[in-house]
Amino acid sequence: MNESELLARIQTVAGRDNRELLARFWLQMDARPTLLPFTFDDLRNLNADGRSVFHAILGGYAKQQFLPLNAALLGQLSNLDCPRGGKQIPASR
After folding, report:
1. N or C: which end of the chain has fewer CB within 10 A?
2. Are 79 and 89 in contact (CB under 8 A)?
3. pTM for the whole thing?
């Protein structure tokens, strides 16, 4: 699964909290700062589709098949990670 397919799956996962958590996880896997930390309990609370996406992200990095996030993907993930009324993460490293 490539990055754009994975992003599309994140966007269809039920529950805003699940989508935000997956975006934060992906950003952190790419060594990007996120607005809020998460715990293993948060990951345990993902629904089945969310867990599937989590494992796809983890597997992509474990197999080193993902390049560093480009500006467009970084912006989309940052928007998912941004709680209502929060500040977005700058795109620069």
Report:
1. C
2. no
3. 0.78
Q: How many angstroms separate the CA atoms of 81 and 64, rounded?
A: 23
Torsion of CA 90, 6, 48, 58, to 10 degrees: -70
Cβ atoms within 10 Å, residue 18:
20
Token pair recorded at residue 22: 């997956």
pLDDT of 55-92, one tens digit each? 999 998 888 888 888 889 988 888 887 655 444 444 44
Are the C-beta atoms of 32 and 69 separated by less than 8 Å? yes
The two three-digit tokens of residue 65, written as one number: 């098949």
